[in-house]
Each structure stands twice: as C-alpha cells, then as structure tokens.
Give the backbone structure.
Amino acid sequence: MRFILRIFGWLFAAGAIAFVVGAAIAGGLIWHYSRDLPDYAQLRNYEPPVMTRVHAGDGSLIAEYARERRLYLPIQAVPKLVVDAYISAEDKNFYKHVGVDPEGLVRAAISNFRNRGANRRPQGASTITQQVAKNFFLSPEQSIERKIREALVALKLESTYSKDKILELYLNEIYLGAPAPGQGSYGIAAAALNYFGKSVHELNLQEAAYLAALPKAPTDLHPFRNRDRAIERRNYVIDRMVENGYVKREEGEAAKKQPLGVNPRTVSPNQIAAGYFAEEIRRELQDRYGEKKLLEGGLSVRATVDPKIQLMARKALVDGLVRFDEARGWRGAIQKLDIGGKEWGAVVGELPVLGDVAPWRLAVVLEVNGDSARLGLHPLRDNAGHLNKERQILTLAADGIKWTRRARVSQAVSVGDIVYVEPMDSRPGFARLRQLPEVNGAIVAMDPFSGRVLAMVGGFSHDQSEFNRATQALRQPGSSFKPFVYATALDNGYTPSSIILDAPIEVDQGPGLGMWRPENYDGKSTGPRTLRYGIQFSKNLMTVRLAKDVGMPLIAEYARRFGVYDDLQPVLSMSLGAGETTVMRMTAGYSMLVNGGKRIRPTLIDRIQDRTGSTIFRHDQRVCEGCNAEKWANQQEPRLIDNREQVLDPLTAYQMVSILESVVNAGTATVVKSVGKPLAGKTGTTNDAKDVWFVGFSPDLAVGVYMGFDKPKSLGTSATAGQYAAPIFRDFMTVALKEKPATPFRVPAGIKLIRVDPRTGMRAGGEGGILEAFKPGTAPPDSYSVIGAAGDGSAPLNVGPGGGGRAVGSGTGGLY
C-alpha cells in the first residue's frame, strides 16, 4: 500500500512539476509573443478607407474616387440574412467562443488528416476574430509564430470589444474580389453593389451566400472565369445555413438551383456625359481636403449637375464641333490595319476606343465595292469586361459619306481603314462615316440666381483629352466682354440713349509703340449712334470711345466685381476683350446681369458630407431667420436672408438685359431667334477668328459657349461667332427650354419704359421708335449731343498722345 502511495505521490509531484514547467514555458511564450503586440485601442476609433461618391442633383451616381472601393456599413444596418451567411461560412461558433474556437481546431485537424494526399487546400480554423486580428494587426505570412500571435490578439480583442463590433470590422474590411475590371470590392456594401447592383438589404439568399463564400478565395471563385467552382462554394454556404437552422431546407434547395445572377455595374449615361464635370469636382475636393481625404475619407458629394441638361449640353456642343469640322471635308482614316487572314474582331477589339462618344462606334473596313463598304464594328465588352464574340457588320453607302466631298465610298475608305461611324436610326444596318473633330470648345449652363452649374462640357471627349476648356482654357472673349464696358457706363451716368461716335480713332500707344487704329468688323463706320446700337451690332470704334470716356480703371474694377478678371490691365484694347478669361467666369458674369446685379459664386457642388453624414460644406450661404425655433410661439414665419453683395444697380442690370435682347432680336445673333423664347446674349469673335463665343441667357438660365483650336489658329477668314458659337447656344436652348413657358425678362420696380428714336436716342413721337429702359430721374435727352465728337457731332476724333494708355496687346481684341 505504501508503495502504491509512493508511486501516486511521485506521479503527483512529477505532474505538478510538469504543470509548473509547462505553465512557465507557456507564460514565457505568451510573454515573448505579447511583448510587441499592437495597441488594440486604435480599433475604437478605427476609420477604414472608404470611397468618396458623387451624386447628381437627381441622386444618380456620376463618380467614385477610392484606393479601396469600400462603403462602410454599421452592424445595425447589416441584414440578418447577410450576418447568418457569413457566420455559417466562416465561423459558426462566433457568438460562443472567446476568440479562438477549440471545436473548430479539432474539426479542421480531422478534415485535413482525412484529405491528406488529396491535393486539396488545407482547411483553416481561424475564427472571424482571428481574421480581424490578422487583417488589422499582423502580416499575412503562414507560420506558427504568426498563428500564436493571431490567437493572442484575438483573445485580447474579445475582452476589449463586443461581438457586434468585431463582426462590423470584419464585414467592412474584407476583400471580396472584382466581378469586372476596376471593381475591386472591399466590404459587403461595395460588393453587393458591384456584383449585383443592389444594396445589402436587397440581397436574396443565394446572393448573400455567394458573397459569404468569397472571403476564402475571391479570385478562385470568380463568377465568370470559375462559375462552376463559385456555384459549388455558394451551395456549400447555403447548406451550412440550413444545417445551422438559419434557413429552411426547402428554401435552401430552391436557392441552390438558381444561377449566380452576378451582373456587374455598368457605367451609366450620366457618368459618360459628365466626365469633365466629375474631374473638376475631383480637383476641387483634392484642393480643399487633400488626396487622402478624397480617396479614403468616404465623402458624400451632392453635385449641382442636372443629368438631363448635361446630356443636352454635350449633344449641342458635339453637334456644333462636328458641323464645323465636317464642313471642311474628310481627313482620312484614324489608322490602317493589316487584317488579311486574321480574325478581325480580336484585332480591332484590342484597339483603344473612346468610351464617351456614343453612339459613335469604332469600325474596320472589311470590304469596298465602289459605292458601298462593309464595316466590322469594334466588339463591345460585356459587364465582366470580356469582348463580345458576336460580330456586328454595317454597310457604308453613298448617303453615309455625303459630307466628305468624295464622289464614291471607295474614294473615302479602303480595306483595313480604322474609322468612326454612327449607326443610322432611319436605316437599320447602315452607318454614317464620322471623324473626330480637330476643333474643340466648351459649354457651361448655370442657374443665374445661385451660381449652381447645371451642365459643363469641357471638350469633345473627356477620354480623348482631360483638358477642361470651360475652366482651364484661358482665351480672349472678344466682343462678348463689351457688355461689361457698357454696364460700367450705364452704372455711372450714361443712359441707353447716350450717343457715341462710330468713326475712326487713333490711339497713341506710347514711345516707340506707334499708333493703334482699331476697326469695326466690316471696316465701316456709321457715325453717331446710341449705346444700344453699339452692343447690338458690336461696334469696336464706339466701344473704344466709350471706354476712353468712362476710364479703363473703372472698367477694370467692374470686371473684377463681375469675376471676369482678377486684375484687368487698364488699357483701351482690353475694352474689346483682349484679356484672357474662361467660359465659366464669363457665364457667371452674365448671370449677374440677368439676376439683378447680385454676386454669385459659380459652384459644381451643393453639399459635402463626411463619412458620418455631417455636412462639412454647403454652397448656399444664405441665413434662415427663425429656422431654429424650438416651437411655434406666434412668431413670424422663417425667412431666408439674401446676403449676397450687390455688384451692379438692379436697374442698370435690366438696362443691359434689354440691350442684349436686341442682339438676338435684330443684331449679330439673330440665328438664336428660332428658339422662340425671350433670350439675350452677345457674340464674341477674336482677332483672325481664332476664338468664337456666345454668352447669353433666358430669365432663369445662363449659358456660355466657346469654340476654337487648342493650338490657336484661325477658324476661317470669314468665321464669326454668330455663324458657329451662337447656333450651339440655339440648339441647347431649344431643347433645354422646350417645356418651359415663354417667360419675359423681369422688369425691376423703378424702370420707366419710354419710346425713343433708335437713331437719335431722343423721345419718339406717336407709335414709332423702340421702348427704352430709363432709371428714375433720367429720360431721353431733349437735345442731340455726341460722346467722342470733336464738336460738330459727326467729325472723327483723333486721340492725342497718352489718350489710350501705353499698351494695347496683340491685335485689336474683339471684332464681332
């Protein structure tokens, strides 16, 4: 008996020693691997990289900016179906274990032992908590040391954070693959959108199960390259959900019979048309907040763009550019390919193609027979980015090349030519030959009362050139600047009936610079005329005389107020638009004429919210008086306080609007009259017709149009803005105002409409003459007097030394 007791005592002592030694070793290992473990507290305020999204005014998505395409979703917003799917796929004991799952370890060990030699991937036993530990704190290397550290971190996480917080971190951090090129998905919210075009709340059973299957091997489970493997894994997840009691068996069996149903998001028409708009917003966000905030900050941006108006503006500009370009004939194919004996679809499919010129399509000429040609269209890519194997053939006939100045199709194209064509809606199976225009331009449409940019197109194709000609191209506005000269005069004592001499003038430019002799576009002069006439027919000689009389320093100050220039050189040539500015600035300046002289700040962004939904920027700075009242106490109704600066007398502003109406009705832009609505504006053509402009407005919409070559050269010896820029304005306004009533321009209180003689500016008798707008205390003159005359009212004025400042710049500035 004693012997037995001694044995037990020895065994107990040995066991105790072994336990102490083991505990010491375990403690030492834990101490060793815990020495430099990360600070788990950083997860408390963890903000993962979240993509910035830009939405149009109607809520449609126009752009996303991100390093990792992730949308962060709080666990409270994750549907139970999705949670059940991931727990079944990854860690069925998640809500039971303490970070490490012994049952899972045993299960994985048995499974791996059974599958040894079967060339199958070993089954892991990492819990969701361990995956969070690995993803956030540890390297992805496969080693015993890293697994020990992973378990230690997991245990610490479980003691620090709730299960829901750990699951939230996991569901938002995991990488779930890319269903199509450029659609790498981080987190379940982004994956639901990219794979199925749905929010997580709209996912059905089979869709949720497929997303839950992806964390193990997103590349191996690609829905198109490895469809069968993906379906197998999805069905495995469904079986686990049934086994765990989350789904009824019959529901699971029905879901397993369904196809994957993956349908990657495609680029919307809004994104295609809004390339310049989205890029300008990207630049503004980066300038305002920095690149890190832009790509990782999860900003939600509400843009001012109206997708319908944007599409209208793009079509009007493109049509105008193409109209100009095609009038100069066919320049030939983009390039030539040798397709002999080759599968032409694959060859053409590898060519770069502009993605924002729809409905134009890239094509290769397969066969030519005198008056017709067979064309093979560039194969479209499916939602997964794969080239469509179906080959589409169109015919190019004589009616598709009329504009090329070629008598026969064979004179325009030959076999192997790469060209752009546009399928004919009126003649299915046939195409019209197209060419990318060399000329370029821009159009901006703006709400004149708020400065909200409703549409902005900075060129023919953003894919072809990201250079934004609406905001980045500094060009001379020509005569479209003249309204600001005349507005300065009207705001400082002149009236629309003031008479200015339209006659030759010489300006001494200073020592060694010679005399400047500006001319009217037609080279003629008409003698004394009213201010209205000077704008209506864009008279350079009248404008120079008026600018000299008013003073260029004052005109420069008004140009600054209107935002057209920051620091205009106060020399007389600048009165003809010789200074450089942008379409955006000019459109904003004209907006201040039609809105009653109120300063506006043009903006592409209405509001910016951070990742928590807090508004960090709002364009509308008006104060709402009484909006913060806690309850109704018989106080006055809330009202918005308009705190915008008055840059021009509202009565002066209306006088300019009235004068600019006459440009459309009977001046240099009568081509715009066909819109059939009250419109006003001004043409602008610069020296040698290198740039043409039209800037104008309806009572509620301001629009600026510019056309010219990126490397300035003449548009033609007889080119004018009325011929090329004004028709673009006309085409846009025709569709933009189609459903709008013909609202007249608003006449402010205090304006007196008096009938005057358009030639003399004096009061007209009877029913003749025109209605002219006068401010209180002013009226048509009782006697005839001429500004800029030498004394007899008609003689030319010769300006002596120093009369026009020293510098004139290159040429005469605006012409027409």
